[in-house]
Amino acid sequence: MAVLPPESTARFFIDYSTENQNHTLLCRSNGIVSPGALGANVDTLLTALTTLFSLITIVGVRFAAQGSTFSFPVISGIEGNTYGASTIGSDNAPHQLNFIGRSSGGKRCRVGIFGFKGATSSWRLHDAESGPIGNAINHLNASVGLWLAIDGIEPVWYPYANVLFNAYWTRNVRS
Q1: What residues does each domain of the chain span?
Q2: E strand or H helix at 102
Q3: How many whole angstroms separate alpha carbon 14 and alpha carbon 34?
Q4: Which residues contact 76 (CB under 8 A, 6 or more apart)?
Q5: For the chain, how big is the Rg over CA atoms in Å?
Q6: pLDDT by residue (tens digit) across 97-126?
Q7: How far apart are the first and last CA of the chain?
Q8: Among residues 15, 61, 82, 139, which is most buried (max CB within 10 A)?
Q9: Which SS3 state, helix, strand or coil, does residue 38 take?
Q10: Are 122 and 115 in contact (CB under 8 A)?
Q11: pTM above 0.90, yes or no
Q12: pLDDT (tens digit, 9 = 90+) per residue, 116-154?
């Protein structure tokens, strides 16, 4: 399967901070979804997951058109919004929750969010065992024109979220 360049689709970059670290959540779009519609979509997603996360603050949102390597700030209406509560400390800063999907074109995609503070037993939370996970997966599957795979096709999201410690941020915390 051919590798596609990152700019194969339009992209929104949702910049947020949690546990004194800045992160970016990437959302591929069909290019016709407005920043306001993206803001409402992200707000619904993060609200569904709020009990599972330490304090997350949306710092800003940027947009890059299909084919462009440049992103520019946009107003989505969620700038400054907070989700989750309390902190988990720098030892848990690399703790991440990943939703995985696959498009009908065979491309795998991921939505990864840092600041996860929930318990893990098998490093995977299924929609049947966690209401917030089920709500988030239903939301991702129902989103039209957002959270696309790199081939621009809407994916089907797996019925679980993986829990992990991100290797890059683990190394960063160690140093």
Answers
A1: 8-174
A2: strand 95-102
A3: 14
A4: 12, 14, 35, 36, 38, 39, 42, 61
A5: 16
A6: 999 999 999 999 999 999 898 766 678 999
A7: 38
A8: 61
A9: helix
A10: no
A11: yes
A12: 987 666 789 999 888 999 999 999 999 999 999 999 999
